[in-house]
Design goal:
8 strands, alpha+beta, 6-stranded antiparallel beta sheet, CHP02117
C-alpha cells in the first residue's frame, strides 16, 4: 500500500512539475513579430475559457466574414444583424460532438479523449462581447499578427477535395453552429487549449511551453504577454 501511494504521489508531483515548467517557460523564447498589439492597426480578439476548454472569438468584420464565407454555404446566416463574433474551438470528435452538456457525457467520449481521437473544429456565430464578462480575456493584435492568426485557423481545417472545409453533418448543437473536420489527432495532453496556444503563437503571442488547461494558458499570457492580453 505504501509503495502504491508513493508511486501515485510521485506521478502527481511529476505532473505538477511539468505543468509548472509549461507555464513559466515561454514559447517561443524570442519574439518573431513586433509586440502583438503595437503593430499597425489593432484587432481585438477574445479567449473564452471554462474549466476545461478555450475558444477563440474573432470579430465578425467584413474581412473575417469573407474568410468564413463557407459558413453561409453550409446554412449559417453571416448577415444576421446581431452577429458580432465568430467563435472557433478545436477538440476531440467524440467528446466535442457528443457532449453539448455534462449530462450527455459518455464513457466512450471520455475514453477516446484519454487515448487518441480524431479532431474537429467547432464554429459558431456569436453576439457582442464585453471585456469584463467572466471567463473572457482580450488579446490585441496588429494587422500582420491578426492576418497570421486567421491563416493558422484556416489551416486547421481538413479540406475536402475541392479545398473547402468539410462539414460534419448532423453534429451541430443548434441553429447557429457547425462542426468541421480538423487536422491532427486529439489527446488530453495535446488538446483544445494547446491548439488555442498554437494559434496565438502563430500570431506572435508568446504563451507557456505547455498549457493543457485553461488556467495555465491564461496565466501564461499574464506572465509572458501582459501588454497584449487583458
Amino acid at each position: 500500500m505504501r509503495r502504491a501511494l508513493a508511486v501515485v504521489l510521485a506521478l502527481v508531483a511529476t505532473a505538477a512539475g511539468l505543468m509548472l515548467l509549461g507555464l513559466v517557460v515561454p514559447r517561443p523564447a524570442a519574439l518573431s513579430f513586433p509586440p502583438p498589439g503595437e503593430a499597425a492597426g489593432r484587432h481585438a480578439i477574445y479567449l473564452a475559457a471554462n474549466p476545461i476548454h478555450t475558444d477563440i472569438l474573432l470579430p465578425a468584420t467584413p474581412e473575417v466574414r469573407d474568410r468564413f464565407a463557407f459558413l453561409a454555404r453550409d446554412g449559417l446566416d453571416l448577415g444576421h444583424p446581431a452577429l458580432a463574433t465568430i467563435v472557433v474551438g478545436w477538440g476531440g470528435r467524440a467528446f466535442y460532438t457528443q457532449t453539448p452538456t455534462w449530462g450527455d457525457l459518455t464513457l466512450d467520449a471520455v475514453w477516446r479523449s484519454a487515448t487518441i481521437d480524431r479532431s474537429v473544429l467547432h464554429v459558431a456565430l456569436g453576439g457582442r462581447v464585453e471585456g469584463d464578462q467572466p471567463g473572457l480575456v482580450r488579446v490585441d493584435l496588429g494587422d500582420a499578427a491578426f492576418a497570421a492568426l486567421l491563416e493558422a485557423v484556416a489551416d486547421s481545417f481538413q479540406p475536402a477535395s475541392d479545398g473547402a472545409p468539410q462539414l460534419i453533418p448532423n453534429a451541430a448543437y443548434g441553429a447557429f453552429d457547425h462542426f468541421y473536420e480538423a487536422r491532427g489527432p486529439f489527446n488530453l495532453l495535446l488538446g483544445c487549449n494547446t491548439w488555442t496556444a498554437a494559434m496565438l503563437r502563430a500570431a506572435g503571442v508568446r504563451t507557456g511551453l505547455w498549457t493543457p488547461l485553461p488556467p495555465l494558458l491564461l496565466w501564461s499570457l499574464t506572465l509572458h504577454e501582459p501588454t497584449a492580453a487583458s
